[in-house]
Amino acid sequence: EAQVTQNPRYLITVTGKKLTVTCSQNMNHEYMSWYRQDPGLGLRQIYYSMNVEVTDKGDVPEGYKVSRKEKRNFPLILESPSPNQTSLYFCASSLYLGNSPLHFGNGTRLTVT
Amino acid sequence: DQQVKQNSPSLSVQEGRISILNCDYTNSMFDYFLWYKKYPAEGPTFLISISSIKDKNEDGRFTVFLNKSAKHLSLHIVPSQPGDSAVYFCAASAGLTGGGNKLTFGTGTQLKVEL
Asked: What is the torsional sign of CA B33, A24, A36, A49?
């Protein structure tokens, strides 16, 4: 089954404790992206990657890191999480650059206390 | 600066009637528009899209209309069904000219279809 898989689905952590949210897609998509969803703000892009070893900032990149060492994986790293990073995170992928719909994972609910 | 706006946070419609969800945008470089549907505890799923060279696109019960001069698009669902109850996100992209396949999302409209 074609899908984007995120782990974990739920995560509660404390301020400053490094964490990684994994994302994997099995559709051989070139493009991958991370979004966060917050009430009243919709979905905002954090980082994106157009291909292996190519990443760039989205609208809200502060406090996040990403890497794209393999085509299928695009982990989101929070080196020192803070409470304002409490949010619902979505990983997404699409086939190519340009007008191609994104396929989303089921989300990761992160709480930072 | 919210470039894509969905001014109605919620909408309630009776089963069988038409649902109309609206979206406005400000960036004239946007040339590709999409609607996504989101159920609780799931990621958004692609519903329908329209390119700026068209003013209408239809897929079954779902039709998207684009008015470029007004920078406005709408999603019509006819007839509405209880399973359509979800949050609907409008999204826009500048496509190749914008680079990066970046989608800019609206804040979403919660649709409730009542029996």
From this structure: negative
**Do B95 and A43 make contact, defined as CB atoms within 8 angstroms?**
no
Output the tens digit of pLDDT for each of chain B's 115 residues.
779 999 999 999 999 999 999 999 999 989 889 999 999 989 999 999 999 999 999 999 999 999 999 999 999 999 999 999 999 999 998 865 555 457 889 999 999 999 9
Q: Which helix (H) or strand (E) holds B98?
A: helix B95-98
Q: Which residue of A has its CA nearest to B93?
A: A99
Q: What string of DSSP letters covers A10-27? A: EEEE-TT--EEEEEEESS
Å between A18 CA and nearest CA of chain B: 25
Find the CB nearest A56 among B91, B100, B105.
B100
